[in-house]
Amino acid sequence: MENRPTVLRRIRKVELGAPAHTTKSHGAALAMNHKHDWLILLFLAMVEVTLIITHPFHRFVGKDMMEDLKYPMKDITVPVWSVPIYAVLLPIAIFLLVYICRGDVYDLHHSTLGLLFSVLVTAVITDAIKDAVGRPQPDFFYCCFPDGKDV
């Protein structure tokens, strides 16, 4: 006896009566229908690059502020290069695996579009606030004075 999900999947395909929506059959039309979404993503990417290039607001650091900035320096726990892999490439790889199994280009397109929107909107908001506020890192003191002695 076949397991229930396989039977249901086969019934669903028969009920729909249409072949799978692949990139060949529906890809170009799907991209054209969502061209405004992709243009907004491109605009968000350009804003993010601009925010990365922009120098942040330089805040004066007085002696009374130094207590909040004397956290010990630690090595980076998550390397910067791994963040895009975990946040973007790994989910897209999973989306591609699901596409290979199911063959529905709509799922692939919408999941990729949603992921990229969420990542870019988060990056733009975060970097805009960082640039506007310009507060030093919590380990600022030990970056300036590695021996821990103020001059």
What is the number of independent domains? 1
CA gyration radius, whole angstroms: 24 Å
> What order do the SSEs take from the amino end to the carboxyl end, as H and E?
HHHHHH
| Main beta sheet strand tally, sense and closure | none
Q: How are the SSEs ordered, and which strands pair?
A:
Layout: H1 4-16, H2 23-33, H3 35-53, H4 82-102, H5 105-133, H6 140-144
Helix pairs in contact: 3-5, 4-5
Description:
- With 151 residues, this protein is mostly helical.
- The chain has one domain.
- Helix content is 65%, strand content 0%.
- It has 6 helices and no strands.
- Helix 4 runs antiparallel to helix 5.
- The protein is elongated.
- About 5% of the residues have low confidence.
Summarize the structure.
This protein has 151 residues and is mainly alpha-helical. The protein has helices at residues 4-16, 23-33, 35-53, 82-102, 105-133, 140-144. The protein has one domain (19-144).
Keywords:
mainly alpha; 0% strand; 6 helices; single chain; elongated; 151 residues
